[in-house]
Amino acid sequence: MANSAEARLDRLVPSCPGWEVADLIWHVGTVQAFWGMTASGSITGPDAWREPDRPQRRDLVAWFRDGVDLTANILGGLDPDTPAWTWGRRKTVGFIQRRVAQETVVHCWDALTAVGCQEPVEQELAVDGVDEFLDEVLPNLSHDLGGHAQTISLRTSDSADEWTVRVGEGSYHLTRFATKATEADAAVIASASELLLLLWGRRDVNQVAVEGELAALKRFLARTAFDL
């Protein structure tokens, strides 16, 4: 990500409207710093967090590189079962390790796209990202679980992974297998990378294969319109 940003900090980031690459680097760097300090116990959560001063543009990439190394060393040296503050159901360092990896990989895709490089998210990371999104992000961050429910099936075309999620009427339910197409309101079949990008608003429904009700999929995705 830092390599992509070098000498290109003024490039616009199409997937993050209003941001330049410099803003993306700053955002990821501060997110990693927050989670690193939270995992290590230096702070106890958002109330204790104080955002650092933003470096001058000429110093931004070097600051980012140093921060990545520091956060990687902190998270790599901790047991995943260590208790820690998180916004998820899992209050452990393992949640943080996974969240930092997923935040970084999606924004790395943003940065590469901004400089004209179209690369998919690595398959194993993408599969884990879809799983994290459906199991942690959606139920914990969605402010829209009410109204008519949708049952959506997601299947990877490049692995054996599949999920069915039902959201609505005030509840949420995830199973890690695909229901029959006739039992889901909509089914999406795509590579793990494309599924992850779809869930994080980086792909449009017209860019993936959809079986069933397109309107149901769009309603589901409206429930998952989070900023990242």
TrEMBL record:
<dbReference type="InterPro" id="IPR017517">
    <property type="entry name" value="Maleyloyr_isom"/>
</dbReference>
<dbReference type="InterPro" id="IPR024344">
    <property type="entry name" value="MDMPI_metal-binding"/>
</dbReference>
<keyword id="KW-0413">Isomerase</keyword>
<dbReference type="GO" id="GO:0046872">
    <property type="term" value="F:metal ion binding"/>
</dbReference>
<protein>
    <submittedName>
        <fullName>Maleylpyruvate isomerase family mycothiol-dependent enzyme</fullName>
    </submittedName>
</protein>
<dbReference type="InterPro" id="IPR034660">
    <property type="entry name" value="DinB/YfiT-like"/>
</dbReference>
<dbReference type="GO" id="GO:0016853">
    <property type="term" value="F:isomerase activity"/>
</dbReference>
<dbReference type="Pfam" id="PF07398">
    <property type="entry name" value="MDMPI_C"/>
</dbReference>
<dbReference type="InterPro" id="IPR010872">
    <property type="entry name" value="MDMPI_C-term_domain"/>
</dbReference>
<feature type="domain" description="Mycothiol-dependent maleylpyruvate isomerase metal-binding">
    <location>
        <begin position="5"/>
        <end position="111"/>
    </location>
</feature>
<dbReference type="GO" id="GO:0005886">
    <property type="term" value="C:plasma membrane"/>
</dbReference>
<dbReference type="Pfam" id="PF11716">
    <property type="entry name" value="MDMPI_N"/>
</dbReference>
<feature type="domain" description="MDMPI C-terminal">
    <location>
        <begin position="124"/>
        <end position="218"/>
    </location>
</feature>
